[in-house]
Write a structure and sequence with these properties.
By secondary structure, this protein is an alpha/beta fold. Helices cover 45% and strands 18% of the residues. Bound molecules: beta-D-galactopyranuronic acid.
Length: 327
């Protein structure tokens, strides 16, 4: 398994550094990741671990456990509250279930583009979103790209919002996803990421929604027939560490962790961009019909009820206005 390889590399680096600098007390850090080892998020997390180990002279040895080996996102979020896991990359919108203000980054069509999204999360709004995570024992150090999520189906193509109605669509287990799918009249079916492939195969669900790299990494393109590029959700993913760990760090180490996170995000975003293109090609090559949505406005209009459901307090409204004001 890949993480053992990189763990060995980090341990060897730590040992080599210890030989030069004298004995160091290494602190192992456990990282949670839902994706397979060669996914852009996974490679970003590996980079984060390597940089932290290197720049702290092996005093911290982060290792990432891929493929949801440490549980699904909900379980991992829970484990972070009692420091069972030290760092992770979480879907920002899914964090809305533990830190309500985070729902704002999971509102359908809230970001105008990838550039707009990064201008928001890399700026002062991102800093405030990180502060909102404190009660959940998390600090967000950097943000990763997760592209845009679109619907895909096995039998019935989706060309207009009305085509979603009545279809049993898998969504991640979080309010923003359920509300988005239900706004279009779908029979929203929350389920863990790993369960989607067999459920598509056996007809337990009619479809799901995700970005092209995830469609391919989970082999969903082998069982679906239609992929509708409605791009209803563009949700950034947060590289978080526990607040317990963060508060225990010296100022110098905080800077090392933050810089390592930002550099890992730079790599992840570059890899993401490349993967998005190759993934869409792979989906087409598998014979899936790509349905372009020239005018997304009918989908945007249909999201009114999701906004009403998700904007539950004035704080989310303030965040929404601030996001809209960012260029
Ligand atoms: C992926 C995303 C994960 C999770 C997953 C899912 O694209 O990176 O955070 O949301 O989809 O659908 O469960």
């Amino acid at each position: 398994m890949k993480h053992f390889g990189s763990l060995t590399k980090i341990l060897l680096t730590a040992a080599a550094l210890a030989a030069v600098a004298g004995p160091v007390e290494a602190r192992d850090l456990r990282g949670w990741n839902v994706h397979v080892p060669d996914y852009p998020v996974s490679l970003g997390m590996e980079k984060f671990g390597e940089l932290v180990a290197e720049r702290t002279n092996g005093r911290f040895v982060p290792s990432t456990f891929h493929s949801a080996e440490l549980g699904n996102q909900q379980q991992a979020v829970e484990q972070m509250t009692f420091d069972g896991i030290d760092f992770a990359v979480f879907n920002g919108g899914q964090l809305g279930d533990v830190a309500p203000a985070l729902k704002v980054v999971g509102l359908p069509y809230v970001f105008r583009s990838t550039e707009h999204m990064f201008n928001v999360v890399d700026g002062e709004v991102g800093k405030r979103l990180s502060d909102e995570l404190a009660p959940a024992n998390m600090v967000a150090l950097a943000w990763y790209d997760a592209g845009a999520r679109s619907f895909y189906t096995v039998e019935k193509p989706i060309k207009t919002p009305a085509d979603v109605a009545g279809q049993k669509i898998r969504v991640p287990n979080a309010e923003i996803f359920v509300a988005t799918a239900e706004a279009l009249g779908a029979n929203a079916t929350p389920m863990a990421f790993a369960e989607v492939f067999p459920s598509l195969q056996t007809g337990v669900i009619d479809g799901a929604e995700n970005n092209p790299p995830s469609v391919v990494s989970t082999r969903h393109h082998e069982v679906i027939k239609y992929y509708t590029l409605d791009e209803h959700l563009r949700v950034p993913e947060a590289l978080v560490v526990t607040k317990t760990l963060w508060d225990s760090l010296s100022d110098e180490d905080k800077q090392i962790f933050r810089e390592a996170a930002v550099e890992s995000a730079e790599l992840q975003r570059k890899l993401w961009h490349e993967r998005e293109e190759t993934a869409l090609e792979a989906i087409k090559a598998a014979g899936v019909e790509i349905i372009e949505v020239a005018d997304k406005q009918p989908f945007v209009d249909a999201m009114d009820s999701a906004y009403k459901q998700l904007i539950t307090d004035p704080k989310i409204e303030v965040f929404l206005k601030d996001i809209q004001a960012v260029q």
